Amino acid sequence: MNKDIKFVFDKSLLNYHFHNDHPFNQKRVILTKELLENSGQLAENQIIVPRVASDDEIALVHDPAYIRTVKSANNMSPENLIKYGLGTEDTPVFPNMHEASAQIVGATLTAIEAVLVEGAHGAVNFAGGLHHGFKQKASGFCIYNDAAIAIKYIRKNYDLKVLYVDTDAHHGDGVQLAFYDDPKVCTFSIHETGRYLFPGTGNVNERGIKEGHGFSFNLPIDAFTQDESYLEVYENALREIADFFQPDVIVTQNGADSHFYDPLTHLCGSMAIYERIPEVALEISKTYCNGKWIALGGGGYDIWRVVPRAWSQIWNVMKDEQPLHGDLPITWINNWQKEAPVTLPTTWHDPIEEIPVIPRKKEIEEKNHVTLLNLLKYTKVI
């Protein structure tokens, strides 16, 4: 298929780097890019270099005082930083933090412009999806909330209704709050229940306020949820929500941390969910948005075995309307195995014998189904 889609990338996006032992590691972006190139799926003319976001663009979401703090964080005392969520274990200060963060925001805005100005069918910025950032505070590895800024940018410049879909294992709290009173932005987050996992929010009854009441959707699923249950509730919820909202454009945040290999979460999905998630997003974009779809990255902390395959399948589906199957390219495996601390996968799928056996599987499935019904009933979609 000859679809005009764009891959936003520059090595400067790797500068968002806290320290070598931090779980958030942007090396996963280059691993994904090279996996696609070695698979013959990404050509040079599909790659576009991002611009840098201006302070005014960042201020669409973030308070100017917070932006000034990020700029001068390396020269500030810990007690002055902590109220802004900086200098913590999650978001420690690093050199040129503002510049690196502004580059990621600019990359997401570049993806938006590729679709809405240049007419591309879709675009990806896998360095983005930093969905925990708040107006005046960093949180959960996220300094500037590029997803929220991008949606504000769409609302300001194009007056389109935006459906934001967040499949990160952690609740998309920062984006939800940014649009909690906005009826033109519908947010949907499927995530591990906050009972066990940061940030502890994202309950079904978080529905929005004022004019935005009824446009916030959350589907908290049980720890150790596996593929069948995940996809049942995800597909049913997203189709109903999209039909209810009738979006003009879809923005997806694609955290790859719901996999059983991920070290920070308790969900037990396999690569099967990462093939289906983008297929449903594509279906929604074609049905309601004339194909306008912008995909971002997000969480994902097994950067070797999970994230490159998961994010590559988003691009594969956006490009060819189907995921890849079979073996991974041996060139990619050989290039990275010497550096990887784990044995790299050899196929797009996970071997069946590696998928955990969960004794509570049926109970988890029943609980998730009830949560789905409560979501749809409570928000009057059905």
Would you write up a description of this structure?
The chain is of the alpha/beta class. Strands 2-1-3-8-7-4-5-6 form an 8-stranded parallel sheet, with helices on both faces. Helix 1 links the parallel strand 1 and strand 2 (47-48). It has helices at residues 27-38, 55-58, 64-71, 78-81, 97-116, 146-158, 173-178, 227-245, 271-288, 307-320, 330-337, 361-378, and strands at residues 5-8, 47-48, 122-125, 162-166, 185-192, 216-221, 249-253, 293-296. It is built from 12 helices and 8 strands. It starts with a strand and ends with a helix. Helix 1 (27-38) packs across helix 10, helix 5 packs across helix 6 (146-158) and helix 8 (227-245) runs parallel beside helix 9 (271-288). It has a single domain, classed as Arginase, Chain A. It is globular.
Please give the number of β-strands: 8
Regarding CATH, which class? Alpha Beta
Classification by helices and strands: alpha/beta
Can you tell me the CATH topology?
Arginase, Chain A
Average of pLDDT: 96
CATH architecture: 3-Layer(aba) Sandwich
Uncertain stretches of 5 or more adjacent residues: none
Largest beta-sheet characterization: 8 strands, parallel
How many domains in all?
1
Report, as a whole number of angstroms, the end-to-end distance. 36 Å
Q: Work out the helix count.
A: 12
Q: Which range does the strand content fall in?
A: 5-15%
- The CATH superfamily turns out to be Histone deacetylase domain
The helicity comes to 25-40%
